[in-house]
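Lay summary

Proteins are chains of building blocks that fold into shapes. Our project writes down both the chain and a compact code for its shape. Here are two examples, one after the other.
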Amino acid sequence: MTPLLFGLTFALAAPFWALMILLPRWSWTVRVVSSPLIVLPVVAIYALLVIPAFGEVLPAVANPTLDGVTALLGTPSGAAAGWAHMIAFDLFVGRWSYLDSRERGISPLVMAPVLVLTILLGPLGLAAYLAIRKPLG
């Protein structure tokens, strides 16, 4: 089950990334991406992976140590849960960046590489967006 959930994680997020990067000005892109609920399928996968292991996860995150987090993520289910966690948050940040960039009039040609960077290396994509973000007004 874990390999299936791992494989589904990005597959469920990919259509939203494709809309934001490849069809940024399409009216349906804005309609779809405007909902924060687009992250729920990936959150559901995260829940399916974390809830059964909650007794092991809670101590590792409530009082994190490097060894504890290493042990947690060093299993197939831990790695899959970590992946779902990253994909959900990267998608949420990408969604925010996309919507915010439209409000600020930032070109989709500028945003495309920023969104790709967000998919691949989430925090660096966020940093890149914050660096190019224009003030409103």
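And here is the second example, written the same way.
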Amino acid sequence: MLSVAVALLGCASAAMIGHTAFMAACAMLALGVLYNWKLKKFGFFGNLAVGFSVGMCFVFGGIAVDNSFEPVVLFLAVMTMFVDLGEEIAADALDVEGDRETGSRSFAVIFGPEQAMRISATVFALVIAGSAVPFATGWFGWIYLLPIIAFDAVVIWSVLRLLDPSAPRKLRYIRSIYLAGTAMVLALIVIRLVTE
């Protein structure tokens, strides 16, 4: 009952922003319901749904200020989606027994946790490669380079630890990526506020 009430309140709040925001909120609510009902058992498609939902936070912010198609907004949305996708696949690799018990067809169940972790590492490699895009296109000035390099460094270090079979308590490395990503976004916001 609380879930339904909060979902309806969220859609009503989005409607106060505008028609596009309302449609986006309803679409994401539908995706969330579909994920809990079916998609979480479909492995990669469930991971992708979660990543897409997280990335949509930036798009919704753009919609709220009538600037949803600004390249930087779309870049951050796509990058966030891939970061979360990599983390979801890595988390599945760390909880393969749980996935088996729930009937999930995750990469960890299908290919084994080691191969799933390598797939996760490939996704993170795409994230690191993609971090050069806003500089190559001129969307970001060079002042933004430091927080992005710092984030990439944390990702590389964390992924290497996740790939190391002897590394203990691997969940903390996934958490490190989350925290580094949050810190990077906050740094980008502060730089934008100070310089523009």
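What can we say about the second shape? The first helix runs from residue 2 to 17.
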